[in-house]
Specification:
The protein is an alpha/beta fold and about 200 residues long. It has a single domain, classed as Rossmann fold, CATH 3.40.50. The chain contains seven helices and nine strands. The protein has helices at about 5-15, 65-70, 110-115, 125-130, 130-135, 150-160, 165-185; strands spanning about 40-45, 45-50, 60, 80, 100-105, 120-125, 140-145, 195-200, 200-205. The strands form three sheets. A five-stranded parallel β-sheet has the order 5-4-3-6-7. Strand 1 and strand 2 form a beta hairpin. The two termini are about 30 Å apart.
């Protein structure tokens, strides 16, 4: 599989996780001084947030944020997971398996997040609103409105937040190109597909 196809695969799996390569830019060591103090302004559901120009120690609290961050070539230092038993999804590769877990998506662990000394935290208003003040006291915290928003918009949002907006648009274009290839190869005109995700005894369609 080419690096381009691997990135597209990660993005496609993000869609599935919604119900619908990579260079390590972080480590578990303290953030280096080379990160500097330059910032960018990001418009969020919580207003304007100043984020590092080049964030090096990112914690993600939402699957779409984790998947998109990895697909953009950035390895978070920590992430909340859907299940602490299963941990970081295996489809993200062996390097991602080393990402520290900080509780679950529904109940992130503030102490574990603080211990990682992040310089940027990504979360979701619909799931993490009650934690915002605690998180913002640790590091610049950016919330997307909802994990249920159109996935393309969420991918673009994460790209803007990480300073990789152009890379995010390239991912989206590559995804569309891959869809077109599949449609041509398998003659999918007029057909639809259903994504089914079994979890905790329930089926999400």
């Amino acid at each position: 599989m080419t690096k381009s196809h691997a990135r597209i695969t990660a993005l496609a799996l993000t869609i599935a996780a919604l119900g619908a390569t990579a260079t390590a830019c972080s480590s578990t060591d303290a953030a280096p001084d080379s990160a500097g103090s330059a910032t960018r302004s990001i418009e969020t559901v919580r207003g304007t947030v100043e984020v590092p120009e080049t964030p090096l120690r990112i914690v993600t609290l939402e699957p779409v944020e984790l998947d998109t961050t990895v697909a953009l070539g950035v390895m978070p230092v920590g992430t909340a997971v859907l299940s602490e038993t299963s941990g970081v999804p295996s489809y993200l590769g062996t390097e991602a398996a080393n990402i520290a877990t900080v509780g679950t998506v529904a109940e992130p662990t503030i102490e574990d997040i603080a211990a990682l000394q992040p310089d940027l935290i990504l979360g979701t208003e619909t799931r993490h609103a009650e934690y915002y003040d605690q998180l913002a006291a640790i590091a610049p915290t950016v919330f997307m409105a909802s994990q249920s928003d159109p996935w393309r918009e969420n991918v673009s949002f994460v790209g803007r937040t990480l300073g990789k907006e152009n890379d995010a648009e390239e991912l989206l274009s590559a995804y569309e190109d891959r869809c077109a290839e599949i449609a041509e190869e398998f003659d999918t005109a007029g057909q639809t597909a259903q994504l089914i995700r079994p979890r905790n005894g329930e089926l999400t369609l």
